[in-house]
Every structure is written in C-alpha cells, then in structure tokens.
Amino acid sequence: MTTVLLCEKKIQAEAIAKAFPTRKTSEGIDIKPCEAFPSGALIVWASGHLLELEEPEGYDAAYKTWKLGTLPILPERFRSKVSKFGMKQYRNVKPALQKASHIVIACDPGREGAAIGYSIVAFTGQAKKPVSYLWTQSLTPKAVQEAASKLRSKEETYPLYQAAHARAVSDWLVGINLTRAYSLLINQQASSRQGVFSVGRVQTPLLSLIAALEQEIRDFQKEPYWECRATFQYGNEVIEGKWTNGETHRILEQHKADNLAVYVKDRPAVIEDRSTSAKTYQPPQFYHLSSLLAAANERLKMPTKVTERALQSLYESGFVSYPRTDSRHVTPAEAATFPKVIKALGELPSYAELVPEAKEKPGKRYIDASKVSDHYAIIPTEQVPDPAKLKNDEVKVYDLIARSLLAAHYPVQKVEYEKLISVVDERFRFLTEGQRELQTGWRHVIPASKQDDDVIPDLQTQKGTVINAEVDEKETKPPKRYTQGSLRRAMEKHHLGTEATRSGIIDTLEKRGYITFEKNQAAATAKGELLINCLGSGSILTDVETTQKWEEYLTKVGAGERSADPFVNQTRHLVTQLVQEAKAASGSWNVASYETKAEEAETVGTCPSCGGVLKDKKAKKKTFIGCSGYRQGCLFSLPRTVAGKKLTDQQVQTLLTKGKTNTLKGFKGKKGKFSAALQLTSEGKITFI
C-alpha cells in the first residue's frame, strides 16, 4: 500500500514530519515504516488554495465583457481550475496522488482545510480512492502521532468540504452577478468612472453595519450638560462628591448648575447613607480567535493582521493549538496536559513567580466537552518555546495565551465598592464613590490597566461642611467607531463569516475602497456608503440576520445534517431576483451626491503653489500627494510617508496652513523610533525641526 499525506503547505508538512522517522526526497518527505504507517508514507503539500472556481469567460467567451444583458450568469455545473500561482506545486502533488493507494488529508482541521484537501483529490481524479483525514489541533510530535493513530474517515469529514464548496459557489454567484450589475448601473449614472462596486454575501452586510454607524455618528447632535462637584470636610478628612438626583449626575441648564454651586458652598452637610457591596470577578475564559485578536488590538495596540501572522507562526512551530477556533473551552483530554504545560512555563523568567500560585482547578467555565465541536480553545502546548528565539510580536501573542492559562488556575478577584451620600440643606444630595481590592486573585497574572484603589476614608463624624463647589461643563459623545478588535466582535455577534474567514472579509472591504482605518478606527468611505444607499435599507444583501441564517445552514451541512444542493439552488433563484430588482431600482439612485462627497473626501488640501487641489496619487507602488494642476505645469508634491511614518490628512493640512506641525511620534531612523516636528520650507520640501 502506498500512503500519501497531503498537507496544506510546506511548513505544516515539515511540522508533521517531525513526528516520524523521515528522509527528504525529490517528491516530498518520505516517512519510514513506523507504528502509524507500517509500510511508510510520502508527505506532499499544496501552497494553500491551489484551485479556484472558473471565471465566467471560462464557460462562455461572451461573459468576458461586462454587460447587463448577460446577467445573471448561472453555470449549470461549476468547474475549478489551477490558480496561476499554484501550477508549479500542483505538478508536484498530482503524480504523488495518482500513485497513492491511500490518501491521508493532513490539512488544517476545519472547513477550509477540508476544502483544500478534498478539492485537490477530486481535481486530480482520485476521489474514488480510500481517503482519511489526519485531524490534529496541535502540530507537536505527540499530538500528530495521536492523530495518526486514529485517522478520521471520509464519511466524517467530507461534509466539511461540501459546506465549503457550497459557500464558495454561492459566493461566486452573488459576487459575480451582483458586482457586475451594481458596477454597470452605478457607472451608467456617474459623471466620471467610479470603478468596480464589489458585492459579497458576507462583506456587504458587514459594510452595511459600518456605514450605518457612520451615518449615526454623522447625525449625532452634541448636547451640553453640567455636573456640580462639591468638596466636603468631615473632621480632618476631605472627600469629593457629585450632585445626583438618584438617576443621573447631569444638569441640563448651566444657570441651575452655577446657582447650585454657589448655594451649597460653605453650607453644612450631613452623611445620609454609607453602604458597601462586594463583587467577585472570574478569570477570563480561554481565547478563541476573535477574542484573542480583540485583546491584542485593544491591550497591545497590535493590528489584527500582525497578531494573526504571529499566531499562525506559533501554531506552525507547535507552540500553541489550532488558532482558527470558535470555542473558548477545552475537553478533559486537553486539560490533562495543563500541569505539564504550567510546569514548563515556570521555567521561563516571565512566569516563574506566577506558577507557584497557580493552584486552582479550572471548572466547567474552561473544561466542557459539550462546548467543543471541531476545535478547542487556543492554549499553549506542552512544547514551550524559548522567548529569545521568537520574534517580538510572537512573544507578545504567546504571552497573552500563556497568561490566560495561568489565570484560569488562580482564584477570583474580589473588589469592595462603597457609596456615600452627603446631603446639603436636606435636599441636595452628592454621591461619593470608592473601591478597594480585597483579593487580587487572577489579576496578579493579568493586571488591570487601572489598578489604584480609591478608598473613602474612615470619617469620625457624620457632620461636615462644603468647603468648595465647582461646575464642570461636558457634552454628550457620539457612538464610537469600530476598531479592528471590536469589528471582529461585531462579526462574531452577528455570525458574519467564520473564524477562518473574518479577517479576509475585513481586508477585502479595505482593499476595495469601502472602508478605511484611521488610528485603528474603521470608517465607511463615500464609495462604501454609495453602494449601501443603492442597495437600500431593505435589501437582503445588507441584512445580517439573513447572512446569519445562511451561515447556520452551512454549519449544518458541515456536520452532515443538511444537503448542500438546496443552499446553492436557493442562491441561484435569489441572484436572479436581485439582478432584476437592481435594474428596476437604479433610476432612483442619487449617485451625483456621493460623487461630490467622494471628491471632497479625496481632497487633502489646497496647493500652495497654484491653488489647485491636492490628492493622493500613486507612482511605482508608492503613494504621494500631488496637485491637480500637474498637466498645467505645477510640480508641487509632498510625500505621504516621512521616515516610515504615514502622515494623516490633518497633519498634511497643518503643514500647508501653518507651515509646521507639533511634535509627532512614530518616525523611524537608523537608531530606532523617534519624535520630531515637521516644517514645510519655502521650496515645498518637508524637513525635521
């Protein structure tokens, strides 16, 4: 028997090979006869998705030109082709699979891994051969050996491929047809070419969420309010309190706040009530992908792309479990490894003092087999790394994961909260709040960003005096934009995409010009808002609940509980209907107003040389700021990036109007990062000052 293991990529193949006696050959990596493979085996690998669905023109040359008359495009039978980047690797994989008498898919354990493995097996004409799945959530030699001893059957794992294929086909139907329809219809009305308007089954509902929030922020009207703070002296102690009516501190009219401050000053006060309450805080659950990306983004300011890259490297090196998981629990089998992992962590200086106190036994909050489907939570493996051999980003991500495991073995945090009510003239109440930590617990492992206790002192008397009173003017704040971290949480909440696809969906929106990230905040562009406006508020394409139902159905397909065919057939009918609706509704679209908005958004400033409009331009893959008067001879331009720091529109506008900026952080020099102010010289050059 000739057994061939098909891996997703080379680094995965090399990690799996470490579990067995091997030798490298021109075909791949030979596994010598061993307990798992008595006759030996050959490991070969793809390079991710070697195959992709055929483009429309592959079915009919007439589809190459975008025309409304050819829509909808509904292939009777979908075909795949080798991607131009995957042809070389495909030529290595194909002959190995043709020689195999038993194929073992050893791709990632999940829907996308199954899609890669089974699609290659089918495309090479080997679908009738015996196929098994080496399903391992960790790439340590021990985990790989255990997985090899209990290979999963095709019956158990093939439905995952069916779900992935159904998703890919449905995404093709929606994307190809609706992208062409809306691109053609919008550009028909536009005064200048607006480019492609990509529509997607998951990306468009996500864009709708971001655009709706953008509109909410735009419509928000700030409202002023005032708070009255009074300083009380009780004996030798001084405390501060805010006026309250029992529900709010806000006073909506300034003269009332001012009058209150004047009235209570120097008047006697008495303590009406003093109460305490204790609260316990459980250690956080283990991470799944979305929560880990959010934590790294919010606590460490790491972009999600950077975190994912570091996490994938840690997984491929065998240091952490499979990362693209949606579970925050482990089974008892994984929990059995915890003592050994914690002991190994204790050998590292970063955790040496934490390990002796990690004595609590985690309960069902962490260990619950019923909460684990395909993948368990992200945890450290028994293969603990040497931090000195990791990249800086990998150290940061590993630290988050390691501390989550240690925290689960610590007691709860206990905090006491205290409230004190001071009354002036028997009618004006002021609230003083304090807190103190009674038990640090797991916060010793994961410190809070603000740890200082704010304790109300012991007062020897119930009677005091208002020694000062002040009024603070404040205003209501608009909703906060999504950050990279909170956007992942929103996608999880609305079931948009999967842990394996969410980052790619966000990247797609950014690459296609629908959203931008400025200081880690996502904002919809004029182009993104135009598409959502044209789709309309009642469109099924922007409805997150519909997308959630689709994802739920695909999950059932992956579990073998539903057939994929009805899902694809329903998508065919839906696409036909949506193309017709777009054609009928296009006459009412207001494209012109969004063109104006897009023009304004693209304007960086006014050219100091000729008065023209300054915009971002590209040359040789680099972005710079150029003048609209270029064709008339104006050569004024500015770099968008200076010493490794990308300048914001506001910073550029400050340079143009004031000639210099305040001190800015984040420049990169030969000796590392530095801060400096920028100056625009009379020759139009940017210099440091």
Spatial ordering of strands, largest sheet: 2-3-4-1-7-8-9
Structural class of the secondary structure composition? alpha+beta
The major beta sheet can be summarized as:
7 strands, mixed
Mean pLDDT: 94
DSSP strand tally: 27
Please name the CATH topology of the largest domain.
Answer: Topoisomerase I, domain 2
For the CA atoms, what is the radius of gyration? Answer: 31 Å
CATH class (first level) name of the largest domain: Mainly Alpha
Q: Note poorly predicted spans.
A: none
Count of helices?
19
How would you sum up this structure, described in words?
- The protein has 689 residues and is of the alpha+beta class.
- The protein folds into five domains: 3-50 and 86-150, Rossmann fold (3-Layer(aba) Sandwich); 167-219 and 488-592, Topoisomerase I, domain 2 (Orthogonal Bundle); 224-282 and 419-475, Distorted Sandwich (Topoisomerase I, domain 3), CATH 2.70.20.10; 289-407, Orthogonal Bundle (Topoisomerase I, domain 4), CATH 1.10.290.10; 607-688, no CATH class.
- A seven-stranded mixed sheet has the order 2-3-4-1-7-8-9. Strands 10-11-14-13-12-15 form a six-stranded antiparallel β-barrel. It has a four-stranded antiparallel sheet with strand order 18-19-20-21.
- A hairpin with a 4-residue loop joins strand 2 and strand 3 (29-31).
- 36% of the residues are buried.
